[in-house]
Amino acid sequence: MSATDTFRQAGRPEPRWAHTHDLYVDGAWTRSSAAARLPLVDPATGCEWGSVPDCSADDVDVALAAADRAFRTGPWPESTPSERAALLRRIADEVEARATEMASTNTLENGSPIGETRGAAANAAGILRHVAGLAPWLEDEDVRPFPAGGAESVVRKDPVGPCVLIAPWNFPINLMVVKLAPALLAGCTVVMKPAPGTSLSIRFVAEACEAAGLPPGVVNLVTGGADVGDRLVRHPSTAKVAFTGSTPVGRRIAAACGELLRPVTLELGGKSSAIVLPDADLDQLSSALIRTCLRNTGQTCYISTRILAPSERYDEVVDMVTRTVAAAPQGDPFDERTVFGPMASRAQYDVVRDYLDSAHREGARATTGGRVADTGGQGFFVEPTVFADVTPDMRIAREEIFGPVLSVLRYDDVDEAVALANDTSFGLGGVVFSTDPVAAQAVAERMDTGSVGVNFFGSNHNAPFGGRHDSGLGVEYGIEGLSQYVTHKSIHRRTH
Ligand code: NAD
User: What is the value of pTM for the model shown?
Assistant: First the structure.
């Protein structure tokens, strides 16, 4: 059976690429020197459908040499921010031109529902255009007088250098582009390393950069896992690392960058809370619930998977949450109606199963779901699950699960709710549900976290997004995100 027949039989769109052997280096697609391969597995069926190279040390060296050369001798860092912004806008157009293929490849790679991945290209293009609009911030002449007079300092924002961009598999396109866009606008060159399972989604991003006419070596792409990532992080040509992924890997990268005195931004895991205030409108909670607390089948870093309900309305909240989750369809991620797809991989399916087991052992009560779905070994589906009677000491209340599992905890007064929300090693997201904007704002201000929503959660290209504590270091989005790719230099001069 041909590859086309295989995809037709499985009801899947045929991807542009399946088995690839090349990396994008110095403006050309060149064959990897590695023999090792990384499989691509459709998580909805469990079938392997493609593979990419597990790049060699030589491949990494060649990619970073290209990025280094383009930074030191190429036209890119010498061009003006406005010129670079024009290129970013062209990349945005090229990304959008690939929207349909990007979406279906992304869904085939990680099982994200097509309704989610269809927006990925538009979102990436939106980030690129928004960041392009920040060029004046780089161009503004910043001259500051000496307080004692007689001299002034010109404060320059120089590009930091060749950057290594490492992304996870849950929102592969968005989480790469949110690094790529500010790095490029600042005048940096980059080597991108996607998560192994979502490598082909990022191939479209590299292709869009090529089609937009970026000079050779400005954007490079290698594929691989932890070893490739580690080599990139420690490579002598790397000037900065931008990483999104798990907290344990983030710690390892931070340790390496600390040793090397290398700037690093880390967007890591989370365990965020939705505080339902006593006056909350539960219909509003229901309509926001999936996106705020279970987006992408629970595989989203900032979602509020701990729902804190006031004791006097606990049963009502549990009932509403249970009905909402139970009513959302689970199934083939290519089906337009699907809300919950599979876990992105066998490994993630095993992780979530382990958490479900721990919840049952520790005495939580499943009000819907509670088990991995029985698919006869085909596909990595977990039943969308709500646990009631969850106490703060349970593992499901404390650790990031990264699956479709909600815990509902009870509180007696608002101080206790805030204390419960803050009783975590993470600090990434959060949401407050209330009909009183003043009360909601007051609670949001007391939550020890990088971002909080009131009655909804969203990421704003204009506002910094980042985690506190075990959720990371530094921010992405906004001027603050762009500023992570510049290094300041003050040139002092006499004024008389
Ligand atoms: P992961 O940490 O296992 O992998 C992330 C990336 O790092 C992958 O590309 C991987 O190949 C690479 N990597 C692994 N070991 C490495 C090493 N030693 N050195 C360099 N690179 C290495 O994470 P994951 O399982 O892909 O993603 C899920 C995690 O990402 C969750 O914890 C989630 O909360 C987090 N996440 C955070 C955000 C955020 O913005 N804070 C967004 C999305 C996901």
Answer: 0.97
